[in-house]
Amino acid sequence: MISWWNEDEGIVEAKPNELKLAVQALRYDVTSPFFNPMPVPLPNPPAANAVLPPHPQDPAILQDIANAIEYNRVIRATQMPTGDQVGAGAVYEAALIAQHAGGAVAPPWFAPALAAGLAPLMRTAHINYNLCAGDGHSRRFQVVPFLDGTLPTGPPHNLPPLVNLQVVNTLTGPQATAYLQGYGQPVPNGIAARRRAICDAVGCDVTR
After folding, report:
1. Residues 24 and 108 both lie in one domain
2. d(CA 121, CA 21)
3. What positions does the domain Mug135-like C-terminal occupy (predicted)?
4. How many domains does the chain have?
5. Are 120 and 179 within one domain?
6. Per-residue pLDDT tens over the stretch 81-91
């Protein structure tokens, strides 16, 4: 989380991806001091299995937005998109829409709402990655967000990051329960059963 002081609201916190989305919105708000009518940059990092769309017009036209939507569809159809790739594609699409809309001011709820809307895509991308990472020792697992979009490793949860199977197998009873509740899964009685359920929830293929 990133924190800063706001005279009206006190201490404000935001996830890095939410802050990035807010900055993108400010860039295309003609009333903002950050207004910059330069063309929207292509997604970075690009997805390895998807061809980047053509450079957009300045300002963006509807075909540019359609190209961004198709690019994001292709990303989600690949087997191993990372969370950063999915997020970069979504930020690109949102920036094109904001620019095409003529600089309408983004309401305060825009960035959090968009982040919450992206959470299921991020979860799917991370789970798909973990399914191809074996036991996580050669390629560390990616942390799968909870259903509400929060990270299990951040406040208020502060749980250990599940970077490999060994970490899963060292979870305590309360930690395993917290993980399953965050993922909306039933909580079995035995700790071994809870750990297996967590493996299923985060894409840890224990058969490898």
Report:
1. yes
2. 16
3. 129-204
4. 2
5. no
6. 777 788 788 88
Helix, strand, coil percentages in the chain from 3-state DSSP, rounded to 5:
45, 5, 50
Q: Confirm whether 6 is domain-assigned.
A: no
Strand partners, 12: 4
pLDDT, residue 48, reads 66
Q: Residue 176, CB half-sphere, CA atoms under 13 Å: how many?
A: 22
Q: Which neighbouring-strand residues pair with 2?
A: 14
Q: Structure pTM? A: 0.53
Report the C-alpha gap between 203 and 136 in whole angstroms.
11
In the chain, alpha helices (H): 16-27, 62-77, 83-100, 110-131, 165-168, 173-182, 191-202
Short-list 97, 140, 148, 98, CA closest to 118: 148
CA-nearest of 39, 41, 52 to 99 is 39
Query: Alpha-carbon torsion 64, 68, 69, 70, what sign?
Result: positive
